[in-house]
Amino acid sequence: xxxxxxxxxxxxxxxxxxxxxxxxxxxxxxxxxxxxxxxxxxxxxxxxxxxxxxxxxxxxxxxxxxxxxxxxxxxxxxxxxxxxxxxxxxxxxxxxxxxxxxxxxxxxxxxxxxxxxxxxxxxxxxxxxxxxxxxxxxxxxxxxxxxxxxxxxxxxxxxxxxxxxxxxxxxxxxxxxxxxxxxxxxxxxxxxxxxxxxxxxxxxxxxxxxxxxxxxxxxxxxxxxxxxxxxxxxxxxxxxxxxxxxxxxxxxxxxxxxxxxxxxxxxxxxxxxxxxxxxxxxxxxxxxxxxxxxxxxxxxxxxxxxxxxxxxxxxxxxxxxxxxxxxxxxxxxxxxxxxxxxxxxxxxxxxxxxxxxxxxxxxxxxxxxxxxxxxxxxxxxxxxxxxxxxxxxxxxxxxxxxxxxxxxxxxxxxxxxxxxxxxxxxxxxxxxxxxxxxxxxxxxxxxxxxxxxxxxxxxxxxxxxxxxxxxxxxxxxxxxxxxxxxxxxxxxxxxxxxxxxxxxxxxxxxxxxxxxxxxxxxxxxxxxxxxxxxxxxxxxxxxxxxxxxxxxxxxxxxxxxxxxxxxxxxxxxxxxxxxxxxxxxxxxxxxxxxxxxxxxxxxxxxxxxxxxxxxxxxxxxxxxxxxxxxxxxxxxxxxxxxxxxxxxxxxxxxxxxxxxxxxxxxxxxxxxxxxxxxxxxxxxxxxxxxxxxxxxxxxxxxxxxxxxxxxxxxxxxxxxxxxxxxxxxxxxxxxxxxxxxxxxxxxxxxxxxxxxxxxxxxxxxxxxxxxxxxxxxxxxxxxxxxxxxxxxxxxxx
Length: 797
Prior knowledge:
797 residues, alpha+beta, globular, UBP13_Znf-UBP_var, 25 helices, metal-binding, Papain-like_cys_pep_sf, eight-stranded mixed sheet, hydrolase
């Protein structure tokens, strides 16, 4: 006790602003349930596993720790499973995740000799007792940054339901046989609770659903509430009521009265339609989910180094799939595992290692690759019956890598491609002092765009990238005869694909070679300003690669615009061989006899480059229900590339704080700091000023302007590509032969990259392994033809 009293000055009583860690080690994935328990530093309130607490003492000289140990309680074998009443896991009324209950025990430990004192004890100094009680009663920092359970959002009572005025029109709604009043739709029908009009719902992203007649009726009349016919039963709370002004599903506490106004007796109604939430859940049984997750197959579980699963934190499968593949590459393994110990990363970390990306990447790398946490759970998965791993929860890593990012720091599903690019950018910034150690470089390659003007002169523009984003040319499908026969059969029988078995459906099958050929094929550029002709003309652009990376990532653009400008995910197979050769995609540079375009760009050309939204794109987006201003911003920020790109941008930026700020076309003075930033990127000052002026001072748009107007920077960018000499940036990129071997696939299930589920398949030790969150097993049928992202490793010549 005297030893503790002599160190009381090193004990702090936590303030409300303190971040208290008591559920997970900052350097490993040890928890109070680990063999050695968890040690909480009573000065910094950081937590450490038994193997790591001494490192913290050596670094900080903080000697007093609260030791927390959890041991499982004995549970009767005949404990009955409760029937779930809520779409949730691990909460009252949700699915029973069959986890054992634990007993906690505490003690005060003093380092370096691990002297242990019991807690609670009246003999302990009051300061220690207050400090420990405060720690134990506080919400842990890990929990603050995590949604404790995955559950559907509760519907709120609509403010319009309480004051709804219904029109005395004499309309009586029959119990069945409904049809839209404005078209022939007999499904997805909504009854307006003000005037009794029956109209079809919105058109879905995949082209199904209604024809937007219900929402159009609201825009014409401002009648606020509608209920989905076919969802009305004796359980009125389960009915699908939608409030157009609130733009959400709501509760109508007076629904029985509102239905009776139209002669509807809800007690006799039968359920014939799925609610919106049920339709989302129904995705779990479709073909993609079963095939990609290899459901229904008895997967052989795999354990050991490199076969550790990642716990889903709630819509974090995009992160899990991406990180499993990255930590299967030599560059990430070397940087954050084999050549960097946990102790070294901790010694280099700031006072709070939970905020250090290098530390948390090293922690994640050691967690995945050491095999320490690759331990199978004794019981089978309750939902699937598969043997599962406990896995490790990447909470601290997610917190630090998503810091400051509105989307990745949320609990919403995200695009795995966006996360991959975001992470590489973070990793590159974190290694800016030692670029030789930067593992993101292994994914980078040079891209060269050659523009042939109608004058016969050329321009070369270079940039670096780390993905090849490929369009899928459906016209190159190799099973056109089977597709035609299938479509004819479907039309003759009046069948819908969702009513057909998996074996009956025929999907287009496109070779990967055709996708790569589309990337390299010549492309027309209209209204291209030619410095040789002193005016706009049509030019031809061809794209090639100036270097080949160690790891090549191919992104399949499966979200396209269908006829009628309906956004749709392509239901298509891609024939991907195990080995590809992209040697033919290497740039040849400036050729003998080619003449470069002049580098002078007149001021009026800069003024004409002022960003203006394409009205056709804006009109199509507005017709989908988006506001005019939002649609204009989406078109401008995607350089008027197309409706698909604009819609993708819009969906991912709806929560931006400046989304409703009017568009500014101010082009007077530019900020010197922005000019300096562009200069640091390697652009000349004159070009930087022109680009910023043309882009309203936005650095990102200015960079795009420079790349889209290569003549403006010919003296700085194009000359270096007009001969065989490489720029300094190019010479630092990895390079080699063009033969690559497939080693990783990220597959996506769902109607949008921002919903659904992601799974990774990785070639390890000569066999394909599925990484489905915490489930890791031998893959019996890897979905090579259904990938969203494909990862290839360059083969040595």
